[in-house]
Specification:
heterodimer; A: 210 residues; alpha/beta; Rossmann fold; eight-stranded mixed beta sheet; 8 helices; 10 strands; 27% helix; B: alpha/beta; ThuA-like domain-containing protein (chain B); Class_I_gatase-like (chain B); ThuA-like domain-containing protein (chain A)
Chain lengths: 210, 203
């Protein structure tokens, strides 16, 4: 099974997401972000960079993360982490966030871009739909998983920019799950963490707590 | 001397947090991890964002207690998760989130909330639940300011420490997120700064 390490930036919402029983057992290692320089990442297959981790802490670790990717490993970078500052080939466009589309009319405009991707045995469009803070231009040869209108992607997989695999998203599920807000973000984590661990969708559903 | 020192939030890309300095003059701002070396004796009040590295802040307990013992005011927003100060206890979430459960009730009048309608704390653009979804249990002797839900669980409180200083607690998003709003919640940030700095009404 995939050995999954997760970054904890010390926030209350990371605490709820990472340490409370609902998801705790998915993580083989919890790394406080400021301890990252002392951690040997070679023991892990996947590094999950939690949403809203401060880019000022990640920027000096760019080389360590590049080395991890160079060894064929996976980096998952969630939203509001300043991706372009510390990852290669990330092209980001910041947009004002529409928190209110669901109440005040209009559509958020998200669509699944790769329905056959294994991620979508774990997640539906509704599970990735709350709001987004901007979008990415997907590098040539990489695969968008969730598009926003005709603008770009809010979630893509890149196996071409490095010898490893990048999963890049603008979604910030830990912040909202950890704030007891927005049920879609909890459903997202219910599906996404088993996917990262390589656990089948059926098991994921059975282990979900209502 | 500036009225309050605001700690910058942990934050990545995205512009979903307002800049309080655009609305409240006379504040200073310090980078998140620069708090470790900041000279707090220059400020009457320190205001913490909900996007706080609580593990980092919890490593500064003796510095913060020194600031409080000297008469400082500490404003905390968010949910308590890590050990930080002896007056703090872990956040207790509501176990239901119905409209009734999310109603905000005023328990004690306070200068920070003078003229602020609780209805406008409960609802933001017609949606309930932004203000508080639980509470950080107050220490004995704290004055509860707002309660959430039918049990009026103390989501806001103020505590005068016997050994000096004050703690102003809000178990939710930054109180200054309302700066620039078109309703009475816009009063909170300037009134908070006036009270915390000791320059405005105190009771």
């Amino acid at each position: 099974m995939t050995r999954l390490a997760v970054l904890d930036a010390g926030t209350y919402y990371h605490h709820r997401t990472i340490y409370e029983p609902r998801y705790h057992d998915f993580f083989d290692e919890i790394i406080y972000t400021r301890d990252l320089p002392e951690v040997d990442l070679s023991a892990f297959d996947t590094l999950l960079v939690s949403c809203r981790t401060d880019p000022s802490v990640l920027r000096p670790r760019r080389e360590q993360i590049a080395d991890f990717l160079a060894s064929g490993k996976t980096v998952v970078a969630m939203g509001s982490t300043g991706h372009p500052d510390w990852l290669p080939d990330v092209k980001w466009t910041d947009t004002p966030t529409n928190f209110w589309w669901w109440k005040e009319g209009g559509e958020i405009g998200l669509k699944i871009a790769a329905p056959d991707h294994p991620l979508f045995t774990h997640l539906t469009l509704a599970d990735v739909t709350w709001h987004y803070h901007g979008y990415f231009q997907v590098p040539d040869g990489a695969q968008s998983l969730v598009d926003v209108g005709e603008f770009g992607s809010i979630f893509y997989e890149d196996t071409v920019s490095t010898p490893g695999r990048l999963l890049i998203t603008s979604l910030d599920p830990m912040y909202h799950h950890g704030s007891f807000f927005m049920p879609a973000t909890t459903r997202f984590l219910d599906g996404f963490l088993p996917y990262l661990k390589g656990i089948g969708a059926g098991l994921a559903k059975r282990t979900s707590v209502p | 001397m500036a009225s309050c020192l605001f700690l910058q939030p942990i934050k990545g890309a995205g512009n979903d947090l307002p800049d309080v300095g655009d609305y409240v003059p006379d504040i200073d701002v310090v980078g998140h991890y620069d708090l470790e070396t900041a000279d707090l004796s220059r400020y009457p009040a320190l205001c913490l964002p909900a996007h706080l590295d609580q593990r980092f802040f919890g490593s500064l307990t003796s510095k913060i207690e020194q600031f409080l013992n000297g008469g400082g005011t500490l404003v905390f927003n968010g949910h308590v998760a890590w050990p930080m100060l002896p007056e703090f206890q872990p956040f207790v979430p509501l176990n239901r989130f119905s409209l009734e459960d999310l109603q905000i009730h005023r328990l004690t009048d306070h200068p920070v909330f003078e003229g602020v309608a609780t209805e406008e704390l409960t609802y933001r653009r017609g949606v309930a639940g932004f203000y508080a979804r639980g509470f950080n249990p107050p220490p004995e002797g704290a004055v509860n300011l707002h309660g959430v839900g039918p049990d009026r669980l103390p989501c806001d409180w103020v505590y005068e420490r016997p050994s000096g200083g004050r703690i102003f607690m809000h178990a939710g998003n930054d109180l200054w997120m309302y700066v620039g709003s078109s309703d009475t919640t816009a009063r909170i940030a300037p009134q908070l700064c006036a009270w915390a700095s000791g320059k405005g009404p105190q009771q």
